[in-house]
Write a structure and sequence with these properties.
- The chain is of the alpha/beta class.
- Helix content is 36%, strand content 19%.
- It has a single domain (2-276), classed as Nucleotidyltransferase, domain 5, CATH 3.30.420.
- A 7-stranded mixed β-sheet has the order 3-2-1-4-7-6-5, with helices on both faces.
Length: 308
Amino acid sequence: MIKRLGIDENGLGPIMGPLIITGVETEKTNKDKNNQHNIKDSKKIFRRKQEDFKTLEKIFLRYSKTNFKTISDVFSKSMLKDEIERICPIGPDKICFSNKISLPVWIKEEGNEDLLQNGTDLNLPGLHFGEVKRAIFMVVCPNILSKYIERFGSKFSANSFFMVRLGLKSSAEEVICGKSGYKKSYEREISLAIEDERDKSLNLKIVMESEKESIYEIMNNGEIIKRFYFIKDADQKFPEVALASIIGKYIREISMFSITKFIEPNSQKPISGYGRKNAFEEISRKIIEKSKYEFSKEIPKTCIIRER
């Protein structure tokens, strides 16, 4: 059996809202590990129509394999939960991941009876339900993302660093990451992530670096314990990465829905986070003003809109 982790990001480009780094762990036989056909990632199944939100939610509830009751419950599983809670002035469960919004959000009228049936793979041919072991993820709020962009010099390097941190937390031998931007080398990001693990027995070996694929081995006392693959268009080639992109998309959308509901309680659709910066300046002003009224605390604009 081969343990593989597919990792993708959601929300690297928008002005508002969190970056989500998601990994999907699978176990496959050597014969099945390279099944790659008719794969659909989040960009292919999601066009912001009402039915698309329902499809995202069905896939998330089916494959996350956790009984979440509220949007806040989802945040509680983030691997950066403690770091965000330390710097958040009012708490993530008040605005960005509300504990007042129950799940499911968009398929309540349909019920959940069919979600755990094994008869459908919900647009993910090549990945059977039993092969998926778990989904893991990081919620990276705008404030924290800005700090790491400052540290690494670009959002693409910061994004890669978070992917590696997630991969190091998994027991998978193979970690498949989608390439973002035009990066060829990930040596610095992997080295710094290893340093953060504070395990001096871990070392990095560069296998190859190219525009389409970069491969690295993590060594422990001379033994290979993990391989990282950074692959262009990985979400179109590996079902683990495609499913990670879908689960991450859902997590980002419910966060944006929570933010939207804070200032527009009757809204049934989340703000996308993309658009002109001056429009988001107005949205952030509304959030800051309402938070001062409700919580007697002022939220820094850097918690809402990305600086870089």
